[in-house]
Predict the 3D structure of the following.
Amino acid sequence: MIKKYINVVLFLLLAIACGCTTKSNMQPEGQWTLSEAELVTPTADATIELDEIFTTESIDFEWKPSINSADYIIKYAVVLVSDTATSYENPLIEVESNNNGKDVTASISHQAIDLALAQACYPKDQVAKVKWGVKAMSLSVVAFSSQAINLKRFSKDPTPNNLYLFGSATEVGYNQSEGIPLKAFKDAEGNMTFFETITQLTKDETYEFVSSLEEPALHYGGENGSIALCGAEITATEDGVFRIGVDLVSNTIKLEKINHLGIVGTPIEGEWGGDVALPYLGNGLFQDTVELLQTGGFVLRIDGDWGRMYKQTPGTTSLLFEPYADAVGLAKEDLQNQNVGNYIVSADFLGTSYNYSFEKVEVDIPTPSPIVAPETLFLIPNDGSGAIELVKDNNVFTSNYLALQSAVKYALNSAADGSGTSYSLYGNIGETEDDPNGDNVYGAPYFKEEAGDISVVRDQAYKLTIDFDAPTVQWQYYNLKFFHWDDNGGWDDRKELPMAYVHPYTFTLENTDLSAGYDSKFFSPWDVEFGVSDAAGSTDDASATTGTATNKNFVEEGVNVSNFKFITTDGTYTVSIEIADDYTVGNYTVTQ
């Protein structure tokens, strides 16, 4: 009986507690009130000059708290609105109060306020008449109070980090969220000076520039070559593809029509004497398949004009308009091509990419039938240096290592004077999808009985094996490294230093720090290993800084090949070796 009584009491207490909780948290919103905050500082009609030197300085806002008759939690936000606004909707800027909206204070930097005023088109260096107000928020109820304030803007408008183009005249239409990004350029001191894009415009339609793909944003328009914050939309005066440059320092806009963008330079037919045009495909992309005849430098120029060229930032594929680079002191160089054959060449001016690229055109070549082998076969360079006869073994012709050059065209013919049967390749000597800087590089393109130039992709010493049954032209070359290490247990810490090939037959390592007493050898693991032979009559000398070297892979049984020890003083050295055309021996020099 007592237990039952206790249970009833507990039930009643729980019910009372639940009833109280419901009353304090679920009271209908119409049965309680929320008062407006009483604004304290800045005072009504105060004038504040925004500090454009110490832009992180802030305006401190303070108010007395609102009162909620039901004692619900209240949060606050400070807003700036136009001087004619009657509500907190569409604020120029809104900032939550301190302590996650719980305090009756808030701070906004001068820079943030000036940006908000600029976005709302209040003129620079002028007093903007606005209101500051406080939103007191409790559940879904908002109480708003505001009062006038005068804010003196910075003397200069803000410079955006980004700029986008949109409008009915553009490729994206009147859709700000899809705006075309412009590339931002900086001068040699790192100052933002210029925005640029290449795009297509439609006559009699309009366009504008904006700092963001969503509001709030800075909007730019203008007329007659000028551009201004909050200027009128610009009307396109003709159809076409244009280079559009926007300079927010001089407040100018320049449009240059592009009838064609052309490649001119070493890789194309006619070299520097003519252009290969790249059609415009839209979205800032110029692209076409181009036959690249040799490696080397080139430029992109507009309408064949040497005064309107694109070069590159040194060591990159980033395109740079030469007149702009010259005006602001930026380094530039010719564009570079390392390819031979048919390639899709792209110049991409969409957004911030501004790059050029090459993509190999893949051709599915069926396996050719065997070709009847001639009695003799010659590789004939077009530089007049004389035909090179290859050695026949049944239906296969071979060569020693030939110092071939990318700047020279070659012919393959059964007669030394080129009057016999001609053969040409489906590919190029030295062209590979593998790393061209590997130790042992090779390939085997098909060939056909047909006249045609044979191109070499890169200077190197190539061994050729021409198999008429396959029929393929197998080519192969080595890259050498200079190995340098402490032989007293230091092999794992060795330096493996790639040497650069220099025509003809020479590999060089320039201005490299080397250590006294270390072992050294010339190496292309594991087919080439030049060292010091102890064979009778050998002139190899481990300590000499100029002398001969022997390839360990070609010595007779019982002959040892040891390492060089020609570095006797720590220092910076240049090391080179000229190899024989069969890779058996070499001559080296070491200079400090």
In short: Helices lie at 2-25, 98-101, 110-119, 322-328. Confidence is low (pLDDT under 50) at residues 1-26. The radius of gyration is 38 Å.
